[in-house]
Amino acid sequence: MRWLGRYGLVEPLRDLVAQLRRSPHWGAPLALEVSLAWLLAGDGHQSDLAVLEADVLDPSLALVPDPWGLWPAPGKPQAPTPQEQRVDAVALAARIRHWRWLEPTALAETWRQRAQADWTLALTSPGLEELILLLRHGPALDPPIEPFLAELVGEAPIAASPIQAFQFWALLTDIRPDWPHARLKAADLALGQGDRQRCDNWIASASPDTRRSPWLWDIAARSALEAGAITTALDHWGEALAKAPPEQAEMFRQRRREARRGPGLLQARSLLNRGDVTPALTLLQRLVADDPQWQPLRTLLQQAESSAAAAGGTVAVAGQPPQRFGQLLEQAAARIGLTLPPIASDPQGPVPDPEAARQRLEAFSSSLSDAEARFALGA
């Protein structure tokens, strides 16, 4: 129940409470746990009703204060509380009353002071439960709690305790899925911990607001790179560049360049060494389109083309160098918005006459110099 309350899963919580009420174990202790779960879920009224229900189930616990004698005299317990549970039940009821009566700003002030002394308070109970209550209060807090949390578990605590920091941000992004900072931190730390599945899940379920952040696409690119999906990683870094301000763009360009020239080159070479010519050629065409100035990629592409030709032209464009070059150039130009003269020949038709192909290639010469310069600047 506490877990459902923490994550605000109202419908499953309501269903579980209905099942518990039909259980032979239903009594004041369970009703108080229901009260706490509703409080964590942000429904104070349901929490109060559950406390009243616990008081009816066992009035001898004196869970509801009556200093003025306004309420009926306690009756016989419907479900007497076992002696070993009475102390815990009374203590839980006192904690619930304290949180219900305490002003959100007062709770925030005391929690901040304790968290500054030891931020791992947020990973313990009731420290986590108090934090959840603060997050549920939202606009009632001034100043908001979110900037404080972002600073509380920033780079230094993450470097000192990466596993605990991951637990912290994982909790927060699940409790507050609409908070972009928490989701980005959780996804980044999940990737650092080798938990690519959770990282990818947080990326895939990100809100439109979060997806506008270049950092989300950077994390997605690094995750794809670890999975060996080189072209997907390059595409994601392209998204990061499209969304990044100028002062961040160079870092994403550098990471994309390193991916092409490091893992990209190694993967293409490995494919060729295994005899997987078609996927190697496809990958190299993409890498060279993005990085035409780097000679090792161009050399490996030529090797892949030679291997494809030796295999009898089984690769679609391997036996037609002029057409292959034109298609490659068109794909590359489209990435930077450069308009090139079209190739008129039908790729499904017969192999063109070499002289006619040479003349068509000459039509690209005026654009080629500009394209290479643009590639160099935007690599």
How would a crystallographer describe the biggest sheet?
none
Question: What fraction strand?
Answer: under 5%
The residue-averaged pLDDT reads 85
Order of helices and strands: HHHHHHHHHHHHHHHHHHHHH
Rg for CA atoms: 31 Å
Derived from helix and strand composition plus strand pairing, the structural class reads mainly alpha
Give the terminus-to-terminus CA distance: 53 Å
Taken from the alpha-carbon principal axes, the silhouette is elongated
- Stretches where pLDDT is under 50 for at least 5 consecutive residues are 313-322
Q: Figure out the total of helices.
A: 21
How much helical structure, as a percent, in the residues? over 70%
Number of E strands = 0
Notes on the protein architecture:
This protein is an all-alpha fold and 379 residues long. It is built from 21 helices and no strands. The chain has helices spanning 2-6, 10-21, 28-41, 44-57, 83-101, 104-117, 127-137, 145-152, 155-160, 162-175, 180-192, 196-204, 208-211, 214-226, 230-243, 246-273, 277-290, 295-310, 321-335, 354-362, 365-378. α16 runs antiparallel to α17 (277-290). Residues 313-322 have low confidence and may be disordered.
In short:
The protein is an all-alpha fold and 379 residues long.
How are the elements arranged and paired?
Layout: H1 2-6, H2 10-21, H3 28-41, H4 44-57, H5 83-101, H6 104-117, H7 127-137, H8 145-152, H9 155-160, H10 162-175, H11 180-192, H12 196-204, H13 208-211, H14 214-226, H15 230-243, H16 246-273, H17 277-290, H18 295-310, H19 321-335, H20 354-362, H21 365-378
Helix pairs in contact: 2-3, 3-4, 3-5, 6-7, 10-11, 11-12, 11-14, 12-14, 14-15, 15-16, 16-17, 16-18, 17-18, 17-19
